[in-house]
TrEMBL record:
Source taxonomy: Eukaryota, Fungi, Dikarya, Ascomycota, Pezizomycotina
UniProt record similarity statement: Belongs to the oxygen-dependent FAD-linked oxidoreductase family.
Cofactor(s) required for function per UniProt: FAD
An example Gene Ontology molecular-function term: FAD binding
InterPro entries associated with the record: BBE, FAD-bd_PCMH, FAD-bd_PCMH-like_sf, FAD-bd_PCMH_sub2, FAD-linked_Oxidoreductase, Oxid_FAD_bind_N
Keyword Signal: yes
Name of the protein described by the UniProt record: FAD-binding PCMH-type domain-containing protein
Length: 588
């Protein structure tokens, strides 16, 4: 008992968090250890929650004879559904990529199954009060706290073993505020349209609700992206080049803090928390129970599929790719945004007569919004095509396909992210500004070449920065979004998959990603990366994900969460703890 009393004394004397958290070796309480609350204590929590405490079995357990939920027909179903985002989004503990459950219960009979990789208990929250009760319990009993909505997180921040998890999925009410919105506790009225959405809302539900009013919000490219993790990370969007990042479009939030306070935060009330919650990263400063997001008239969308391709064996492949990438700022200034892939060698996704099976070059899924000029696309691409035909006559094929959509939702319905869940991968990314894209061609070419040296032989080059992001005017003057976004045009990223139970393969994936993007890091020394699609093991992660905002974010974190009730990685202020080999979270 000496240690806790000593801690208490220090905090009473106001010596503060710096000292009392430096006692090494102290861990968060863990199932099966003496400090873990008794069954009766958990039952009492359940009662306080009106029976909303869950102890979910691992979702893969239906495939394992000997597990209480074993059921062969359900196993067949789960094995199939495991590949879908929706399955994991609807489950209280499942996340999209297997690595983040530590492979403890895959839906495969020939593997082992235990609940060890998952949260121990879950609060099925449907109001802010439930969230508060969960946070208060975790703080009081020193239990690792987890926050999960859909589990659509490439960095695995929505699962923690042996934790109490707050499942925000059912906080999903969506209301339209037409014409104006009055900030709570401030009296200020913001004019314009907005939606107030529950913290567990998913992109598709918001898009669909907004479309009923011919509106849209700045949102993500996959249906199952959850709003909380998305806006706390900044939130890039195909609409961002016009309207700014998702975080730039937040007017107000209701959050529950690590201290258990249910607060409305906006530019006039708790402005520093409002600032931090928009870009400072998820699961760090509090849990969003609702957010009010500015909306826009849904645009008429011209969908533009572009292919600029050549034979992978051509010697000029990287000259071609570098040239196209260098044209992205100019294309974006003409209104284009979109999701592109550049490749040195991949199978063509669309079979067309006259196109070889394997190609190198550029393939893009872009849009223009609200353009009247039917020639806008050909005008923009004509000079690019001319240059290409001049430099590499008859060696490059250049196709564009246009489709018109009456609304953003109509476009999204045909173009949302249809990738598979399940399996494991890590990502790496870098934000690219105008200088790196249009400056030293040789340096960029080299960086792109190294950047495609992994197993994908490709790289994604999303046109999601540009004017709207660079000139964004977030409420209150600023937010915690990585300043690197404010000069970026392109979010470049790559991934490396790895199989289960193979440490050396996982290690190899990390090394490839670390190495692949080093030239892009070197070319953007003051730049950074997008926290929600990133390499979780960036060496200089504080600078990479938050740049000059880090110091202020850390100060806010220490003030609102002096005892680290919230902890995740890579997340602001997590430096005092580490996950041990056995999965426990302990002070360093
Ligand atoms: C919580 O209580 C509900 C209703 O009484 C019960 O169905 C549920 O199993 C309990 N949860 C746990 C984890 O025991
Ligand atoms: C297995 O699951 C199916 C589908 O949910 C159900 O109909 C069946 O009764 C279950 N079998 C057993 C043995 O519980
Ligand atoms: C799995 O079961 C769910 C619920 O019964 C059903 O909606 C779904 O279509 C099934 N999926 C497959 C692949 O059989
Ligand atoms: C288990 O079986 C599946 C399907 O046959 C196979 O792909 C996988 O490699 C096996 N896993 C292990 C750990 O043996
Ligand atoms: C969670 O709560 C919602 C109501 O808010 C309920 O519909 C749902 O069935 C609950 N989920 C589980 C797994 O108990
Ligand atoms: C949305 O736009 C359509 C087509 O212009 C129009 O018919 C409809 O009334 C509009 N709906 C609302 C809610 O404004
Ligand atoms: C690009 O130029 C070539 C050669 O002039 C032409 O065949 C092709 O149709 C052009 N592509 C586009 C999309 O304009
Ligand atoms: C692990 O993966 C590597 C390839 O990355 C492979 O060579 C090796 O055989 C795998 N090891 C096991 C035990 O499967
Ligand atoms: C992951 O699982 C392995 C067993 O497969 C275990 O040894 C290890 O401690 C676990 N790691 C974490 C961080 O939970």
């Amino acid at each position: 008992m000496l240690v806790p009393r000593f801690q208490l004394l220090l905090s009473l004397t106001g010596i503060g968090s710096g000292l009392h958290t430096s006692i090494p070796g102290t861990c968060k309480s863990y199932p099966g250890t003496p400090s873990w609350p008794s069954a009766a204590t958990w039952a009492a929590l359940n009662q306080t929650l009106d029976g909303r405490l869950l102890q979910p079995p691992p979702p893969g357990a239906v495939c394992h004879p000997g597990q209480p939920t074993y059921n062969a027909s359900q196993c067949a179903n789960v094995t199939e559904e495991w590949k879908t985002y929706d399955f994991h989004a609807a489950n209280p503990i499942s996340v999209m990529w297997d690595k983040f459950d530590n492979f403890t219960c895959l839906p495969e009979q020939n593997t082992t199954c235990s609940p060890a990789g998952y949260p121990a208990y879950v609060v099925n929250a449907s109001c802010a009060e439930h969230v508060k009760i969960g946070i208060d319990f975790a703080r009081k009993y020193n239990i690792r706290l987890n926050v999960k909505n859909t589990g659509h997180d490439y960095l695995g921040r929505s699962n923690s073993p042996g934790s109490l998890s707050i499942w925000t999925h059912h906080l999903n009410k969506i209301t339209y505020n037409e014409g104006q919105f009055k900030l709570q506790g401030s009296g200020k009225v913001i004019s314009g349209n907005s939606f107030t959405v529950g913290g567990g809302s998913q992109m598709y539900d918001i898009y669909a609700a907004a479309d009923k009013h011919n509106q849209t919000i700045v949102g993500g490219g996959a249906k199952s992206v959850g709003v909380g993790g998305y806006i706390t990370g900044g939130g890039h969007s195909i609409l961002a080049p016009r309207h700014g990042l998702a975080a730039d479009n937040v007017w107000e939030m209701e959050i529950v803090t690590p201290g258990g306070d249910i607060l409305t935060v906006n530019e006039d009330r708790h402005p520093d928390l409002f600032w931090a919650m928009r870009g400072g990263g998820g699961s760090t400063f509090g849990i969003i129970t609702s957010a009010t997001l500015k909306s826009y008239p849904s645009p008429k969308v011209t969908g533009v599929t572009i292919m600029i391709i050549t034979d992978p064996k051509e010697s000029f492949v990287f000259d071609l790719i570098t040239y196209i990438v260098s044209q992205m700022p100019s294309l974006m200034k003409q209104g284009f945004s979109g999701y592109n892939i550049i490749t040195k060698d991949m199978e063509i996704p669309i079979q067309e007569p006259g196109i070889p099976d394997r190609v190198a070059g550029f393939m893009g899924k872009c849009i223009l919004q609200d353009v009247d000029d039917p020639e806008a696309v050909s005008k923009a691409f004509h000079p690019i095509n001319e240059t290409i035909q001049k430099r590499w006559p008859n060696r490059v094929q250049f196709y564009t396909t246009l489709e018109q959509y009456d609304s953003f939702l109509a476009w999204f319905d045909k173009n949302y992210d249809t990738n598979q869940a399940g399996g494991s991968l890590y990502l790496v990314s870098r934000l690219l500004d105008g200088e790196v894209l249009t400056g030293n061609t040789e340096a960029l070419k080299n960086a792109l070449q190294v950047g495609m040296s992994g197993s994908s032989r490709s790289m994604e080059a999303f046109m999601v920065g540009g004017k709207g992001v660079q000139e964004a005017t977030p409420r209150g003057g600023s937010n915690a979004v990585n300043p690197a976004w404010r000069t970026a045009y392109v979010h470049a990223l790559n991934g490396e998959p790895f199989g289960p139970f193979n440490k050396s393969e996982e290690q190899r994936a990390k090394e490839i990603l670390e190495r692949e993007f080093q030239p892009l890091r070197d070319l953007t020394p003051r730049g950074g990366a997008y926290i929600n699609e990133a390499f979780p093991f960036e060496k200089d992660w504080q600078q990479t994900f938050w740049g000059s905002n880090y110091a202020k974010l850390l100060k806010i974190k220490r003030r609102v969460d002096p005892t680290d009730v919230f902890w995740c990685s890579p997340c602001v202020g997590n430096e005092r703890w580490q996950v041990r080999q056995d999965g426990r979270l302990c002070k360093i």
